[in-house]
Specification:
The chain is α/β, with parallel strands linked by helices. Helix content is 35%, strand content 28%.
Length: 222
Protein backbone atom coordinates (compact mmCIF):
# COMPACT_ATOMS: atom_id res chain seq x y z
CA UNK A 1 0.00 0.00 0.00
CA UNK A 2 1.34 3.41 -0.97
CA UNK A 3 1.93 5.89 1.87
CA UNK A 4 3.61 8.70 -0.11
CA UNK A 5 3.36 9.72 -3.76
CA UNK A 6 4.70 12.50 -5.90
CA UNK A 7 2.64 13.55 -8.90
CA UNK A 8 4.41 15.32 -11.78
CA UNK A 9 6.78 17.03 -9.36
CA UNK A 10 8.84 19.86 -10.83
CA UNK A 11 11.39 22.07 -9.08
CA UNK A 12 13.07 25.02 -10.80
CA UNK A 13 15.75 27.19 -9.23
CA UNK A 14 16.66 30.60 -10.66
CA UNK A 15 15.41 32.03 -13.93
CA UNK A 16 16.47 32.92 -17.45
CA UNK A 17 20.15 32.01 -17.99
CA UNK A 18 20.45 30.88 -14.37
CA UNK A 19 17.45 28.58 -14.57
CA UNK A 20 18.06 25.05 -13.28
CA UNK A 21 15.43 22.32 -13.52
CA UNK A 22 16.31 20.15 -10.54
CA UNK A 23 13.20 17.98 -10.92
CA UNK A 24 11.34 17.35 -14.17
CA UNK A 25 7.85 15.89 -13.97
CA UNK A 26 8.73 13.27 -11.34
CA UNK A 27 6.07 10.75 -10.32
CA UNK A 28 6.98 8.09 -7.74
CA UNK A 29 5.16 5.94 -5.22
CA UNK A 30 6.56 4.86 -1.83
CA UNK A 31 5.22 1.72 -0.20
CA UNK A 32 4.29 1.74 3.48
CA UNK A 33 6.69 -0.26 5.66
CA UNK A 34 9.36 -0.44 2.96
CA UNK A 35 13.00 0.58 2.62
CA UNK A 36 13.46 2.79 -0.45
CA UNK A 37 16.72 4.30 -1.66
CA UNK A 38 17.21 7.11 -4.17
CA UNK A 39 20.49 6.97 -6.07
CA UNK A 40 22.13 8.81 -8.94
CA UNK A 41 25.11 11.00 -9.76
CA UNK A 42 25.68 14.38 -8.11
CA UNK A 43 23.24 16.93 -9.48
CA UNK A 44 20.69 14.31 -10.53
CA UNK A 45 18.00 15.77 -8.26
CA UNK A 46 17.85 13.07 -5.62
CA UNK A 47 18.27 15.34 -2.57
CA UNK A 48 15.83 17.86 -4.06
CA UNK A 49 13.29 15.07 -4.48
CA UNK A 50 13.79 13.97 -0.86
CA UNK A 51 13.45 17.53 0.44
CA UNK A 52 10.25 18.10 -1.53
CA UNK A 53 8.77 14.78 -0.38
CA UNK A 54 9.58 15.72 3.21
CA UNK A 55 8.07 19.20 2.92
CA UNK A 56 11.44 20.87 3.47
CA UNK A 57 11.39 22.46 0.01
CA UNK A 58 8.37 23.65 -1.97
CA UNK A 59 8.05 22.32 -5.54
CA UNK A 60 7.47 24.66 -8.47
CA UNK A 61 4.67 22.39 -9.70
CA UNK A 62 3.12 19.04 -8.87
CA UNK A 63 1.93 17.41 -5.66
CA UNK A 64 3.27 15.39 -2.75
CA UNK A 65 0.55 13.14 -1.35
CA UNK A 66 0.78 11.68 2.16
CA UNK A 67 -1.96 9.08 2.50
CA UNK A 68 -3.68 10.74 -0.45
CA UNK A 69 -3.50 14.33 0.84
CA UNK A 70 -1.34 17.00 -0.79
CA UNK A 71 0.96 18.25 1.98
CA UNK A 72 1.44 21.58 0.19
CA UNK A 73 -2.27 22.35 0.52
CA UNK A 74 -1.58 22.85 4.24
CA UNK A 75 -0.75 26.18 5.84
CA UNK A 76 2.90 26.69 6.79
CA UNK A 77 2.00 26.18 10.45
CA UNK A 78 0.23 22.88 9.75
CA UNK A 79 2.98 21.74 7.38
CA UNK A 80 5.54 22.44 10.11
CA UNK A 81 3.42 20.42 12.54
CA UNK A 82 3.17 17.56 10.02
CA UNK A 83 6.96 17.49 9.57
CA UNK A 84 7.41 17.42 13.33
CA UNK A 85 4.82 14.74 14.05
CA UNK A 86 4.76 12.55 10.95
CA UNK A 87 8.31 12.66 9.65
CA UNK A 88 11.70 11.80 11.10
CA UNK A 89 14.96 13.11 9.65
CA UNK A 90 18.53 11.79 9.53
CA UNK A 91 21.23 13.78 7.76
CA UNK A 92 24.93 13.47 6.97
CA UNK A 93 25.77 15.93 9.76
CA UNK A 94 24.26 14.47 12.90
CA UNK A 95 22.82 17.79 14.17
CA UNK A 96 22.89 16.71 17.80
CA UNK A 97 22.60 19.32 20.56
CA UNK A 98 26.00 19.33 22.32
CA UNK A 99 24.82 20.61 25.72
CA UNK A 100 22.23 17.89 26.39
CA UNK A 101 22.84 14.18 26.87
CA UNK A 102 21.98 11.30 24.51
CA UNK A 103 18.61 10.54 26.11
CA UNK A 104 17.54 14.19 25.89
CA UNK A 105 18.73 14.40 22.27
CA UNK A 106 16.69 11.32 21.40
CA UNK A 107 13.50 12.57 23.06
CA UNK A 108 13.89 16.18 21.86
CA UNK A 109 11.23 15.97 19.07
CA UNK A 110 8.70 14.64 21.58
CA UNK A 111 9.56 17.39 24.09
CA UNK A 112 9.31 20.10 21.43
CA UNK A 113 5.85 18.83 20.56
CA UNK A 114 4.79 19.05 24.24
CA UNK A 115 3.96 15.36 24.25
CA UNK A 116 4.54 12.85 27.01
CA UNK A 117 7.63 10.72 26.43
CA UNK A 118 6.81 7.04 25.94
CA UNK A 119 9.56 5.68 28.17
CA UNK A 120 8.95 2.05 27.22
CA UNK A 121 9.18 2.80 23.49
CA UNK A 122 12.22 5.05 24.00
CA UNK A 123 13.97 2.29 25.94
CA UNK A 124 13.14 -0.14 23.14
CA UNK A 125 14.76 2.00 20.42
CA UNK A 126 17.76 2.72 22.67
CA UNK A 127 18.19 -1.06 23.10
CA UNK A 128 17.74 -1.78 19.38
CA UNK A 129 20.37 0.83 18.52
CA UNK A 130 22.81 -0.39 21.16
CA UNK A 131 22.91 2.87 23.11
CA UNK A 132 22.03 1.50 26.56
CA UNK A 133 25.35 2.53 28.13
CA UNK A 134 25.45 5.91 26.36
CA UNK A 135 22.14 7.43 27.46
CA UNK A 136 23.81 9.84 29.89
CA UNK A 137 26.78 10.64 27.65
CA UNK A 138 27.12 13.87 25.68
CA UNK A 139 27.54 13.95 21.87
CA UNK A 140 31.23 14.94 22.03
CA UNK A 141 31.91 11.76 24.02
CA UNK A 142 30.64 9.55 21.18
CA UNK A 143 32.18 8.20 17.98
CA UNK A 144 30.74 9.23 14.61
CA UNK A 145 28.86 5.95 14.34
CA UNK A 146 27.39 6.34 17.81
CA UNK A 147 26.31 9.90 17.02
CA UNK A 148 24.54 8.70 13.88
CA UNK A 149 22.77 6.01 15.90
CA UNK A 150 21.56 8.73 18.28
CA UNK A 151 20.35 10.72 15.28
CA UNK A 152 18.44 7.67 14.02
CA UNK A 153 16.95 7.10 17.48
CA UNK A 154 15.89 10.75 17.58
CA UNK A 155 14.20 10.35 14.18
CA UNK A 156 12.29 7.36 15.57
CA UNK A 157 11.29 8.96 18.87
CA UNK A 158 8.05 10.54 17.68
CA UNK A 159 6.91 7.28 16.00
CA UNK A 160 6.87 8.94 12.57
CA UNK A 161 5.06 7.66 9.48
CA UNK A 162 8.23 8.08 7.40
CA UNK A 163 11.93 8.53 8.09
CA UNK A 164 13.91 10.54 5.52
CA UNK A 165 17.70 10.16 5.45
CA UNK A 166 20.00 12.22 3.22
CA UNK A 167 23.47 10.67 2.75
CA UNK A 168 23.41 9.27 6.32
CA UNK A 169 26.71 7.38 5.92
CA UNK A 170 28.58 10.17 4.11
CA UNK A 171 30.75 11.00 7.16
CA UNK A 172 31.24 7.39 8.31
CA UNK A 173 33.90 4.78 7.60
CA UNK A 174 32.87 1.60 5.76
CA UNK A 175 32.56 -0.57 8.89
CA UNK A 176 30.35 1.95 10.66
CA UNK A 177 28.32 2.43 7.48
CA UNK A 178 27.60 -1.32 7.49
CA UNK A 179 26.27 -1.01 11.04
CA UNK A 180 23.95 1.82 9.97
CA UNK A 181 22.62 -0.30 7.09
CA UNK A 182 21.75 -3.10 9.54
CA UNK A 183 20.03 -0.56 11.80
CA UNK A 184 17.94 0.70 8.88
CA UNK A 185 16.79 -2.84 8.10
CA UNK A 186 15.91 -3.30 11.77
CA UNK A 187 13.86 -0.10 11.72
CA UNK A 188 11.82 -1.51 8.85
CA UNK A 189 11.55 -5.11 9.99
CA UNK A 190 11.11 -4.70 13.76
CA UNK A 191 9.53 -1.26 14.07
CA UNK A 192 7.54 -1.26 10.82
CA UNK A 193 8.98 2.08 9.72
CA UNK A 194 8.87 3.45 6.18
CA UNK A 195 12.37 4.57 5.22
CA UNK A 196 13.51 6.76 2.31
CA UNK A 197 17.27 7.18 1.93
CA UNK A 198 19.30 9.26 -0.53
CA UNK A 199 22.72 7.67 -0.90
CA UNK A 200 25.87 7.17 -2.96
CA UNK A 201 26.56 4.00 -0.97
CA UNK A 202 26.02 0.93 -3.16
CA UNK A 203 25.68 -1.32 -0.10
CA UNK A 204 22.72 0.72 1.18
CA UNK A 205 21.13 0.62 -2.28
CA UNK A 206 21.58 -3.16 -2.38
CA UNK A 207 19.99 -3.57 1.08
CA UNK A 208 16.82 -1.66 0.12
CA UNK A 209 13.51 -3.13 -0.97
CA UNK A 210 13.23 -0.58 -3.79
CA UNK A 211 15.96 1.47 -5.49
CA UNK A 212 14.96 4.58 -7.44
CA UNK A 213 17.61 5.76 -9.90
CA UNK A 214 17.68 9.41 -10.97
CA UNK A 215 19.50 11.26 -13.72
CA UNK A 216 19.14 14.88 -14.85
CA UNK A 217 16.11 15.50 -12.67
CA UNK A 218 14.15 12.50 -13.93
CA UNK A 219 13.42 8.98 -12.71
CA UNK A 220 15.41 6.51 -14.81
CA UNK A 221 14.43 3.36 -12.95
CA UNK A 222 12.14 2.34 -10.10
Amino acid sequence: MSILETVRLTKIYGQDKNKVEALKDVTVSIEKGGFTTIVGPSGSGKSTLLHCMAGLDVPTAGEVLLNGRNIFSLSEEKLSMLRRRNFGFVFQSFNLIPVIDVYENITLPVSLDDKKIDKEYTSKIIDILGLQDKAESFPNELSGGQQQRVAIARALSNKPDIIFADEPTGNLDSKTAEEVIKIFRTCVEELGETLIVVTHNNDIAAAADVCITMRDGRIKHQ
